[in-house]
Amino acid sequence: MSQLLNSLLTEQRRGNLTLAVLSQLRTPQYGYSLVKRLEDSGITIEQSTLYPLLRRLEKKDLVTSSWDTSESRPRKYYVLSDYGEGVFQILKEEWKKATNELFRLLEEENNEMD
User: Fold this and answer.
1) For site-directed labelling of 57, which of 4, 15, 109, 110 has its Cα 20 to 30 A away?
2) Number of helices and strands (H, E) in the chain?
């Protein structure tokens, strides 16, 4: 049971993390700043999860990246592309709709159990 539960939770978390990351890339962010912003919002993401996700998003043209070498330590910044902004808006609306529907279903289940 715990293996199945872990698998289901991982699957659920994956989609949520993608949406969370996209939501924070309306302004350029580098890896650590993105991790910090998400943590400040209560969302934990390991760098070993973040960077592969950013590479996948970049490969799908949702995110663009550029290096800032003006500091002593070069940083790679990520930001939503125009295409990524459009996809993010659609995903956000679908997430809101699904969340409202699921909340209603779960509330109905709770009321039936009372």
Assistant:
1) 4
2) 4, 3
Q: What is the pTM of this model?
A: 0.88
Residue 57, number of CB atoms within 10 A of its CB: 22
The answer to whether the beta carbons of residues 92 and 23 sit under 8 Å apart is: yes
In single-letter form, the type of residue at position 106 comes to L
Q: What is the DSSP string of 6-24?
A: HHHHHHHHHHHHHHHHHHH
Digit-coded pLDDT (tens) for 77-109: 999 999 999 999 999 999 999 999 999 999 998
- State the distance between the two ends of the chain, measured CA to CA, in whole angstroms: 27
